[in-house]
Specification:
Largest sheet: 7 strands, mixed
Strand content: over 45%
Structural class: mainly beta
Distance between the termini: 37 Å
Shape: elongated
Order of helices and strands: EEEEEEEEEEE
Number of helices: 0
Length: about 120
Amino acid sequence: VQVVESGGGLAQPGESLRLSCAASVSDFNVWAMGWYRQTPGKQRELVAKTILSDDTAQYADSVKGRFTISRDNAKNTVHLQMNKLKTEDTAAYFCKVEGNWGDLQHYYWGQGTQVTVSS
């Protein structure tokens, strides 16, 4: 399974960025895709996650109302629209793909993409 992220970069406070994640999955049955972020010295934290089967989404409190996760199930692609960015959104953002190989649950991470919010 390959997980490829794109987007990110530099933005000023209040601006928007869009992240995309595409997973090449072969026989891996994907049931969830999400975005996590990490800053130096801190644990990786959930930003937003979507369950593909029932169209539910989960957001960190800090991004509710500003970030939106969307997906294209047919392409195993998920996007994160980030609006009204704040300096505290600065982090490395990672895509996580969760699923099953038969009865075996597993997950894969992308390589990460940097988001920097600064004036």
